Amino acid sequence: MINRLTPTFEGNHLFSMNMPHLQVLGARHDWSPDAYLCRRSFVHHEHVILAATPPSPPPDDGGDQIHEAQDLLPVIDLECLNHDKNNIKLDEACKQWGLFRLVNHGPSKLLSGTPILTPSGTALKRAPQNINLLEGFNMTLGQLSQFQSQFPVLESFRLSLMEYGEHLTRIATTLFEGIAKNLDLKLQPSRSYVAESTGIVRVYRYPKSSNYNVGLGLEVHTDSSVLSILNQENEVSGLEVLKDDQWLTVKPISNTLVVNLGDMMQAISDDKYKSVTHRVKLNNKKQRISICYFVFPDEDLEIESSKYRTFTYSEFRAQVQQDNKIAGYKVGLPRFERT
Ligand SMILES: O=C(O)CCC(=O)C(=O)O
Ligand SMILES: [Fe+2]
Question: Which ligand 1 atom lies nearest to the CA of residue 204?
């Protein structure tokens, strides 16, 4: 797969040319277009952005105590999960962490690519609350067929994305089934909670930087997804997770995916599981590349819980986009709390 994908990326001009169109195919699920522009424009306009918006200091590190979570993070074996009826380890990981490493998930080399350059950023209409120093693109799996006719030159890339999406959907489905059993969830029949069609594959490149004043690679946030499955492609650290008020580095380990629970999972589980708070710091030695797969429920599936008013994922997404646009940040689940 590496060989099929890499030539597509080679000569970054291909993506420089096509990025505006790629955006149309799939904007990041919970970002306003403005925030998205900001995120992808730093390469050419870093000085402009930083001058326009003073960087906010990195969030409190709990007394600068950053711990490595390498030995603490729960590890889930996908193959064992298939055999166990109630998987206590998975349940504990979801309850206590909201994030775990995943091993034995299938092919060791899932996807690889080279960094992608974006075109010059368009002027920002509004400064978002935080500047995120990264560039990348999102692809919604359900829209890949449009991609075929619009960009025949990227056909091998499209096929790779499809294969990656199928593989990751299989993983997400297995994990979700395990979680549903553990929580004894009453699922709506014939509806998908981890729909491939709404799945998003996102590739990001974070520049290297030793200057903490420039801000974070990706601000403190929770994901809107049911599950997010992260491939820390070039094994460069940066991801940190908030656990018991301390930031822990999630060190990359080869052939090991990182799974984190998102807002939809929190609501579906009636708050038994938490959407994990995380952020990405810039690495001071190397640029970092991550490939993330976000999976969502069918857009019109009604999520019922005792904590939140009934809502659909499309309502949630619209609310997040509106908050991003008006307030400059995501409010998320608190917007849907029962009063
Ligand atoms: O790049 C990463 O490691 C994490 C990215 C992330 O948290 C996100 O896109 O929501
Ligand atoms: Fe995230």
Answer: 1
Q: Give the residue whose CA is nearest to atom 9 of ligand 1.
A: 292
**Does the CA dihedral 43-36-168-176 come out positive or negative?**
positive
Least confident of 9-13, 86-90, 98-102, 317-321: 9-13
277 pocket-lining for ligand 1 (C-beta < 6 Å): no
Residue 219 Cβ < 6 Å to ligand 1? no
Q: Which of the two residues, 24 and 225, has the higher pLDDT score?
A: 225
Q: Quickly tell me which residue has 């109630």 as its tokens.
A: 86
Please report, for the chain, the start and end positions of each structural domain, with discontinuous segments joined by +: 8-332
- pLDDT grade for 53, boundaries at 50, 70 and 90: very low
Cα–Cα distance between 23 and 25 in angstroms, integer?
5
What is the complex's ipTM, to 2 decimals? Answer: 0.99
**Among residues 325, 225, 235, 234, which one has the least CA distance to residue 278?**
225
For the chain, first and last CA: distance in Å? 50
Question: Is the entire prediction scored with pTM above 0.90?
Answer: no
DSSP per-residue letters across 76-128: EEHHHHHH-SS-HHHHHHHHHTSEEEEES-S-S-----------PPPPPSS--
Ranked by mean pLDDT, the top range of 22-31, 38-47, 244-253 is: 244-253
Q: How many residues does the chain have?
A: 339
8-332: which CATH topology? Jelly Rolls (2.60.120)
Question: Could you report the per-residue pLDDT of 268-291, keeping only the tens digit for each?
Answer: 999 999 999 999 999 999 999 999
3-state DSSP call for residue 48? helix
- Long-range contacts of range 190-193, CB-CB < 8 Å, 24 or more positions apart? 191/297, 191/298, 191/301, 192/297, 192/298, 192/301, 193/226, 193/264, 193/268, 193/297, 193/298, 193/301
What pLDDT does residue 134 have?
86
Q: Please answer whether residues 234 and 289 qualify as being in contact, where contact means their C-beta atoms are separated by less than 8 angstroms.
A: yes
CA 261 – ligand 2 centroid, Å: 9
